[in-house]
């Protein structure tokens, strides 16, 4: 069987492909459409007529094997030599395909050990009712409500300082340039894995001289809503803008993100009637959360 004959056959669309017959001196052999066997060698077709580059065809094939569970989380991908024999291609496209799967967050490359299917982290639900939960359980922050499906919460206080409001924060809080705010920074963990980094801002004139200003009060039971209620301020509305983006280097470090993992950026502002009285910028590991919304129509 010549390579030219095989490629000519594979150039047909799969649904139009006739049964392929290899004629030999001894008779004829019908070759299965899905794979071609020669001894112990399994050849998975790479289609010359396919407009996708060879590396893309290989990446698509390996991705399908990963997502179907044929290559389960934690398993070792076939080596370059095995892929050369299995797919009948050279090392260059194999390395390109692995680089693409790494960029997609599907595999981890471990120097000297090989390429492994990335284990899927536990996903937590982030929903609006977490704030109602916080009101009912004022001894806790809303974060444990996110982990209701599992995970032990831990909060690391990273910053507690009075600073001049950054321009974006001043805009959200409708503050004039140079106005000071109480800035608080946290990193949130589930089972010792970092899942969020967050910065919270309160107008300093609201908290000056109160217990909220004291760093020893962090983490505050009940979170920001409870802090404001201690000052006699009732939060009446919360607005959130959510965007997905590639992480910055410090976010990769702080959240221990694998290659190809995006983040959610949440800009949250709390209102007392029409006045914005608190705002926060929250970075969430995109592979560890599901944003869940339930929207009443009546």
Index terms:
32% strand; 6-stranded antiparallel beta sheet; elongated; alpha+beta; Chorismate lyase; Arc Repressor Mutant, subunit A; 298 residues
What is the CA-atom radius of gyration, in angstroms? 28 Å
CATH architecture type of the largest domain: 3-Layer(aba) Sandwich
- Number of extended strands: 14
Strand content: 25-35%
The general outline is elongated
Question: What about the largest sheet?
Answer: 6 strands, antiparallel
Which fold name is given in CATH as the topology of the largest domain? Answer: Chorismate lyase
What is the total number of structural domains? 2
Return residue spans where pLDDT drops below 50 for at least 5 consecutive residues. Answer: 17-42
Strand-pairing-aware structural class:
alpha+beta
Class of the largest domain in CATH? Alpha Beta
Our measurement of the CA-to-CA distance between the termini, rounded to an integer number of angstroms, reads 69 Å
CATH superfamily of the largest domain: Chorismate lyase-like
SSE sequence, one letter per element: HEEEEHHHEEEHHEHEEHHEHEEE
* Average pLDDT rating: 80
Task: Describe the model.
With 298 residues, the chain is an alpha+beta fold. It folds into two domains: 3-117, Winged helix-like DNA-binding domain superfamily/Winged helix DNA-binding domain (Arc Repressor Mutant, subunit A), CATH 1.10.10.10; 124-292, 3-Layer(aba) Sandwich (Chorismate lyase), CATH 3.40.1410. The protein contains ten helices and 14 strands. It has helices at residues 3-10, 54-68, 80-87, 91-103, 130-136, 143-146, 167-173, 204-207, 223-230, 249-255; strands at 20-24, 27-31, 36-38, 41-43, 107-110, 114-117, 124-127, 153-164, 180-190, 193-203, 237-245, 263-272, 275-285, 289-292. The strands form five sheets. Strands 8-9-10-13-12-11 form a six-stranded antiparallel β-sheet. A two-stranded antiparallel sheet has the order 1-2. A hairpin with a 2-residue loop joins strand 3 and strand 4. Helix 2 (54-68) crosses helix 4. The protein is elongated and about 70 Å long. Mean pLDDT is 80; it is low at 17-42.
